[in-house]
Amino acid sequence: MLAVTASAVPTLFPTCKRRRCTILAVDDKFPSFLPKQVEQIKDKFARNLATRIERLPVSFSESSIMSSCIRPLNLQTKQSPLVLLHGFDSSCLEWRYTFPLLEEAGLETWAIDILGWGFSDLERRPSCNVESKREHFYQLWKSYIKRPMTLVGPSLGAAVAIDFAVKYPEAVENLILIDASVYAEGTGNLAKLPRAAAYAGVAILKSVPLRVYTNFLVFKVISFSTSLDWMNIGRLHCLYPWWEDATVNFMISGGYNVSRQIDQVNQKTLIIWGEDDQIISNKLAVRLHCELPNAIIRQIPDCGHLPHVEKPDAVARLIFEFMQESSQKEAQVVPV
């Protein structure tokens, strides 16, 4: 497994430490639909990205959902658009450190909130099962992105990406899977819980102690003060009144079970893995590499389960190089 070291990061991506990075200073004018607790977030990168979140109308299930995302500043047609998903019960703010680096590299970068999570308006309580998540994303892609994309899925977002790429291959040119959670058999026994028990479990999922503790499992190195702030970022979307209903709906629906779809993925795929992932074994990275028909794999040293949060420079470089290589190969096969 090829490792990516910090020294290999080119000058195109300035070192994006949380304490120093070249970003535009903006007034923190947050969208009115975000929970007011966004004001409590200290992380400047998260605050900056939050100011760019918007809601777009997406036709879905005989109605329209105001769906949250971050649209690109750079619109171009030479490369496929880069579309970033997030992990389980998260939001587009997961990309707070890597997103600005990708834009600085000139990539047309979108960050999309998966239906049921993030900051979309779910007041009408739509279904949030796998089929609904897939169809909602397809309608968003069809309405706004409109071109075959390079789709990036971290953690459970990798399962979302595989499911989507297999069902809508015309929409996906390439895949990038980061510490992919793709071998779990859905939500398992949780799908069989009585609704009352499911709601009790979801209340625990929302709890501050659990979220802080989880940060120490997910990231290799994190201070307690940083964990508290990152907990506020990761938990922000949970403060909507519909969050519990959407999460229970997904849980009892059975969740994602994509292991049998892996060998149906025809798109070229980049697998990125944190060397010190304590959530998903590196052995599964090797297995995924073997089972995908057309994949390359890269490992990031001294990194846990979410490299795009913990090592944004390395992830941005890998994504940029992968997209550049893909574009060059496509250019070579275009007839003169």
UniProtKB/TrEMBL annotation:
Keywords: Hydrolase
SUPFAM superfamilies: alpha/beta-Hydrolases
Gene3D superfamilies: alpha/beta hydrolase
UniProt entry tagged with the keyword rRNA-binding: no
Coiled-coil regions listed: none
GO molecular function: hydrolase activity
Keyword Hydrolase recorded: yes
Annotated ranges, domain AB hydrolase-1: 82-317
Record's protein name: Alpha/beta hydrolase-1
